[in-house]
Amino acid sequence: MLVALKEVPIPDPWNLRDFIGGVEQQRGRPIRLEPYPARALHRPCGLWLQYDDVDVILYDQFTSQYHCQQIILHEIGHIVLEHRPESVMDTTDFQPVSPLLPDIDVSAMTHFMARTTFDDTQERQAELFASLLLSQQGTTTRGFDLFQF
Questions:
Q1: Cβ atoms < 10 Å from Cβ of 73
Q2: pLDDT at 97 exceeding the cut of 50
Q3: What phi and psi, each to the nearest 5 degrees, are found at residue 143?
Q4: Exposure of 7 by Cβ count < 10 A (0-12 exposed, 13-18 middle, 19+ buried)?
Q5: pTM score above 0.85
Q6: Which of 85, 79, 111 lies closest to 7, judged by CA?
Q7: C-alpha distances in angstroms, 5 versus 17, 29, 30, 49, 79?
Q8: Closest CA to 80 of 11, 146, 22, 15
Q9: 64 contacts 139 by C-beta, under 8 angstroms
């Protein structure tokens, strides 16, 4: 994981938008952020949906900006660390969310991962990836407003 962190371009000063742009450039594919009401729907606070041509990160829109950034970086950790789900994809979990996200085509996903508990190695690695990034940057509110995209 430390090797992956060293290979990811980290902007100085820290800025989430610039960081995402660097990951997009490094991987040659876009990352799209989508807020959604995770807690209201009793769903995970973060999801990574992978399609053939784009990665979509859903994050809880009703939490603090710091927590949003942690969620997004956790999902980017899955992307950078090339994690894959350990079980068969079950898209029925998205049925309650689908009406709220009309641009998300669940049938076209190649796989997804959800930020829920940390009882498996991949989840712990993704959380550590996000935490290490934030701690190294001494993140404050500068470069932090997701809504300035």
A1: 24
A2: yes
A3: 70, 25
A4: exposed
A5: no
A6: 79
A7: 17, 18, 19, 21, 12
A8: 22
A9: no
